[in-house]
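Discussion board: Methods & Data

I've been asked by a reviewer to show the raw model output for two of the constructs in my manuscript, not just the figures. I'm not sure how much to include, so I'm pasting the format here to get opinions. Each protein appears as its amino acid sequence followed by a line of discrete structure tokens. Is this the kind of thing reviewers expect to see in a supplement, or should I convert it first? Here is construct A:
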Amino acid sequence: MIKWNRGICLFIVFVILAAGISLSNAAEQTPRVLYINAYHRGFIWSDGIEQGLREVFQASGRKIDLYIEFLDTKRFPELAYLEPLALGFAMKHGKVAYDAVIVSDNAAFEFAVKYREKLFPNCPLVFCGYNAFRPEVLKGIPNVTGVNEEIDFSGTIDMALEVHPETRTLVFVTSDFYTAGKRNQDAVETKLIPAYGKQYKTLQFKNLYLRDIEQKLSALEHDSLVFVFGAPFDNREKEFMAAEEYYHRMATASAVPTYSFWDFVLNTGMMGGRIITGPDQGRMVAELTLRILNGAAADSIPVVMETPTSSIFDYKAMSRFGVSEKSLPPGSIVINRPDNFYQKYKPYIWITVSVFVILSVLALILAFLLRQSRRLAAELQQHREHLEEVVSERTRALTESNQQLRLAKEQADTANQAKSLFLSNMSHELRTPLNAIIGFSQLMMYGQNLHPDLLENLSIIHRNGEHLLKLINDVLDLSKIESGRLTLHEGYFDLYHLLDDLEMMYGLQAKEKGLRLIFDYIPPDWGPALTGSPGESDPGPTLLPRYILSDEMRLRQVLMNLIGNSMKFTSEGGITLRAKCHEPAGCGEKTRLIFEVEDTGMGIAPEELNFLFEAFVQTSAGRKSHQGTGLGLSISRRLITLMHGDIAVSSRPGVGTLFRFEIEVSVADRADIRESVPARKVIALAPDQPVYRILAVDDKADNLRLLVRLIAPLGFEIREASNGRDAVALFHEWEPHLIWMDMRMPVMDGYEAAKQIRQALPAAATAIIALTASAFEDERSLVLSAGCDDFLRKPFKEAEIFKMMEKHLGVRYIYDKEDSSEKRTGTSQDSDTLTAESLALLPGTLLDDLEQAVISVDTEKLDSLTEDIGNAHAALGQVLKKMIRNFDYAGILKFIKEAKMSEP
């Protein structure tokens, strides 16, 4: 007995669990909604309804599978067209169980009611955009609710008459070409003309072609008003024309203001009206649909009879007919009103000005302190020389002199240490806000539809930020050179590519100033005929080697300083850069390269030449132009010295200036050069990758926000911390794949945080990349010894961030352009266009199978074939899938036949 009772209990528990699983599965099922639009995509009214529908569904937080179909009755109004369309619907939707069906406009409602039993029996039906709905329409039609489209004809006419009190004639443009047009025409003839004909003269332009209407509208008297109740006949050939073009042509041709009633007439030149909008209809029908999905019966929800409208006027049309905003009804909306740029962007303008004033003051302070440092260093040097003199003259005071020298050396070392500490701190404090300025200005320039003035201002911000960064780097370079900490980073590179970059960089600037820019050098490909003849005292120019071993960045810096100076101080004539080799050399051998930069500018006075390469010294022309800092030539000379060379200058005031320098390099071979891949903008993550967890740590909110905005849109999971202690806590809680770690922070700095993380996880499962505003190379060894895996300086560039993540995570990206190698080899394919040549690449049997599948409309076979094609030819597979989704079977067959005809 006990065993039997136990068995019953187990059976009951099993039944309850099974029922619970069934209910759980039912609750988790995603509702499916079919939306049938009477017209076509691209029609403003239809797109507006869909927009409102999606807004409400998305705001509800529910996942809803929305299927959309278009009847296209605006372009194909024949009723016979709907019967085969219903057959196509049955093939596509006959086996799908929808939770609700939404229809917009009368044609879609009538189609859904007529074929409801075949397509979606017993499914709740929700309509919107139904013109002049009356409750008796639903008689005998169960499980239906919706939104009425009640157009406020009289409200628009009364409003227009208030705005134009001088009106004597009302003109009504009607057409019964479409079903909705018939209803509107009946309303005009039975209601509006009788109502307004007693006080005003009325004219009706009925069922006219567009050209005829244009002629009549252009001849109207100035005391007339035009009201458009629907589109006229397209033209005498009855070719389809977009509704926006109808209304634009009528508004343009009319000699008087034109009014209408729907949102798709806006921005066409019409004055406006009491407007009903598609998004409002979409939002209301979405609310009704959500109630049905939540369990309410459609019959229990009353039809929404009141349709919201808004008084909307077009500023451009108002200006055309001299209508003042004061004459408009209260609460009217005016579109296309021109913006006041200063008022619109006032906060950004003041923030930008304030930031640049502060940074400029800091830069001046830094320059002043560096001047003082140089003065102190000079005084110390004088003091040291004086002590040496005393030692030589007073041997008896040798011990005391040595003590004084040692003290002076300690003071000098202390001063150098203080200067280095100051420069390190100032570098961090200046580069940190520059990181936000340059980064956010670059992000904002990527925005769509930016006002041209705003885009120009952003470019100015970005350009001046880069200029200020260059100034800071120049000052730091000078400091490194003085302290002996600047070293060369030699590598193999293409010298011709460097010269081509410079020619392209300064070519446009020279063209804008009306100058000639000449790059004069002889490539080896020109042959030995150009070299001098043996035995001559001056053999002429020597062939310039293409591939060399040297510091490319520093050579570029020197050439840019010299060409940039010439560009500043040359107003007519031109600038010439000459490059040649001192003597020929084989691969691996050393030689000397000679560079000359000559201009036809204002020249330099003889008394200024001796001080030209001193730091912070400018010529009189430079001081008058307020350009530069006097550092460029000083740094250039010291860099050339590091490259075992020297520089000289000759100049004549009013004639021009010639800078000549030479450096020592080693000749390289083409095989030594590694090809650089041009940076491309990352737009998305490649598919089939894990969701990477990224922790961003920075005490500066602006820099943290910049980093997050750069990487968050790609789909990374991101968390933030403002100090090292919070970063360590988040690491233990969340275990990120990669940490961007700022090194200078309050509470706990990045060095200590990295050490603690590495102690907790020595296996380096989490990559730590240091972000620092320091410009000193010593910083790299410090952060790496603290446990960081890599090092990136601020201000960083967008491409550097993504490249670093690719290096340490192996993440793959999708870029905004095709690979340049594909373009060179011709293997890329336009992802939007199918060609017979691309199909001709397929095997003959595969092409035959594709043709048969298209002819028989075998969707399963087509899916399988396009998948196989996509594995071998990704772009071709995508094009075929797109055409199949758009039912462009005829186009596919056309290109298959052309491909077969082209076979040999």
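Construct B, same format:
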Amino acid sequence: MSIKIIDPAKKTVDWDVIVIGSGIGGLVTATQLAAKGAKVLVLERYTIPGGSSGAFQRNGYTFDVGASMIFGFGEKGYTNLLTRALADVGEVCETIPDPVQLSYHLPNGDNVIVDRDYNKFISNLTSLFPHEEVGIKAFYKVCWKVFKCLDAMPLLSIEDPAYLTKVFFKAPFACLGLARWLPFNVGKIARQYISDEALLKFIDIECFCWSVMPAEKTPMINAGMVFSDRHAGGINYPKGGVGVIAQKLVKGLREKGGEILYKSRVTKIILEGKIATGVKLATGEEFFARAIVSNATRWDTFGGENVKEPLIEQKDTPVSETTWRNRYKPSPSFLSLHLGVKSSCIPTNSHCHHLILNEWERMEQEQGVAFISIPTLLDKSLAPVDHHIVHAFTPSSMEEWKGLTPSEYAKKKEQDSNRLIQKIEQVFPNLKDNIAHKEIGTPKSHRRFLGRHNGSYGPIPTMVLPGLLPMPFNTTSIKRLYCVGDSCFPGQGLNAVAFSGFACAHKIGAKLGMNNWSLPD
């Protein structure tokens, strides 16, 4: 039996690139390729773009779907990836600087303020651990070294030998410095300088607040970016809400000749032999392209973890994906609360972001950590007059929500949300009596609306791995099929998936002969 190979010269190929999903990783890939001249189609299963970086409106409130602590919106350097991605398609987001990244409320009444000013942060931390002043400064100095290596070079695909050669000649010491830290995790580096176990637990929660992993499993490269960029580029909130980022990327995509279709759920990646040639929608409609990009999770793309209908059938799943599934597992999802509250219950001098942990032993347990975001402290336009938004979320596993009857499910939502409100009241007393609007999201909500396997935040290691070395890049073992997002190098976080999008677009651009020879300025 002969195998039909789609010929790019034939009319059956409608697009240069099809991107499955409009998360930030997918949209950065799409816009970068469109800016290179590629004809790009994005297929989104939901009605709005952005995935967990989207937004929704209720009764005068504009709620961020996910976190509002945004990196990558500075003005200088190569690590400000959201700024660069928007600029490449002629867009810009007006942002509001956040003076404090996070206020930690920790066991034994300890409180640590991560000020935008690096020296103030170090002063805050050393006041709690004066005997570890030398170790604290030494550890965070290493983080700065990693960050400066990243910020010295254009962050594109390290799968492209031509790019690696060019960037090495541009910044040889930065390349060598970065390669040095690739195999290491934060925990190992921190213990070289710090011996106080309480302080090491703080480093754990510093990692957990964005990686949902303790320091021993969090790659040093990622930590170097986060722990330093919050003081360099800073945390900057997009005016109008986080959803504006995706909206502007979509606008830029269309202005560059690309397109996005909503309510277009991809159910299958079409293979001709071992080559990805197109996609099939739930409606039965098919689209073909010279390259296919999956912004779905690795599990939704290749199966595993009891996924019933992955985009690639089991018989076609590469062996490398089985290896990946042995190394990584889905992180928990979240129980989320989107509250509209009377402004009188939030002091005007409050910080925007908070983390509450009452017991160190519960950091990785079900609903052990509570995150709070109050974006209206930065942008009052997101809520009606004299009201604030309080977005709170806590890690929660899908297993805790399975097998419930509708009444049991509703009861658990109310009980768990009330417990979360009680935690919020540790910082903001009398909040419950001032709630004007309430939305409750569960792991089932995240799975339904975001299309993520078990509503997961992303992959976490099943064991201690050597830094970022085991993370897969954008290329897969199926020809013309690429992956992008938090299942790819360098992992989770908005700036990280933006990096993945830059890298994926660069790799495909190299294959399609669309890349500029010179590196970005």
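Answer (T.O., handling editor elsewhere):
This is acceptable in a supplement if you add a one-line summary per construct. For B, something like: The two ends are 51 Å apart (CA to CA).
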